[in-house]
Amino acid sequence: MNETIENIKTRRSIRKFRDEQISDEELKTILEAGTYAPTGRGAQSPKIVVIQNPETIKEFSAWNRSYFPNEMPEDMDPFYGGKTLLIVLANSELPTYVEDGASVLSVLVNASHAVGVASCWVHRARDEFSSKKGKALLKEWGIPESYEGIGHVVLGYADTEAPEPQPRKEDYIHYVD
Ligand SMILES: Cc1cc2nc3c(=O)[nH]c(=O)nc-3n(C[C@H](O)[C@H](O)[C@H](O)COP(=O)(O)O)c2cc1C
Q: Is residue 72 part of a domain?
């Protein structure tokens, strides 16, 4: 099978990571691939925020957990102990910003898998960055207030076997004459 197609099909969300940071080279490759994601009108509106400080990741984990719809145990880490946290933001002034951000997130998870780094896409970035705290962080980071959170990707080396994928639903593809 074509290597790229094989990579797309074998990528799985990983939710248990080894206590080891990924290499700078792997991170750089993943991030650069993300910047090549297609975006509406080629505007490249998204931004990828990179966090590797364990204390900061811990803080963001508690913040993310606070937006869970159902009460989540205090010891549950929505980032699963991932060693690197990426947050994709996109500029809400553009008509395609949500799609642009999702496009970048998709490339990031597939690029990670291609270099042997495990990943999981994690939600609730919109809740985070539409809050007062999120707006203050944008200001601190020098990012315009029009940016919204689209999603996170946690990265690390897998400490578990990749699960089998769910069977693909039969009516996924719909041919029309
Ligand atoms: C928009 C979106 C939001 C997601 N949010 C989460 C999340 O908050 N936590 C999580 O563990 N996985 C999350 N995932 C990962 C999905 O659960 C996962 O992709 C799906 O179960 C299929 O498994 P696979 O990625 O291994 O193929 C998210 C995926 C997408 C596309």
A: yes
Q: Can you give the residue range of the structural domain that contains 34?
A: 3-156
- Nearest atom (ligand 1) to Cα of 80: 11
Q: 120 CA to middle of ligand 1, Å?
A: 7
Residue closest by Cα to atom 31 of ligand 1: 121
Number of domains, the chain: 1
Q: Is 121 in the pocket of ligand 1 (CB under 6 A)?
A: yes
Task: Check pLDDT > 80 for residue 81.
Answer: yes
Dump the DSSP string for 144-157: -TTEEEEEEEEEE-
Nearest CA to ligand 1 atom 26: 12
Answer whether residue 174 is part of any domain.
no
Evaluate whether residue 170 is within a structural domain. Answer: no
147 sits in the region (left: phi over 0; alpha: psi -120 to 50; else beta) called beta
pLDDT tens for each residue of 84-136: 999 999 999 999 999 999 999 999 999 999 999 999 999 999 999 999 999 99
Q: Does residue 167 lie within any of the structural domains? A: no
Instruction: For residues 137 and 153, give the distance between their C-alpha atoms in angstroms, rounded to a whole number.
Output: 18
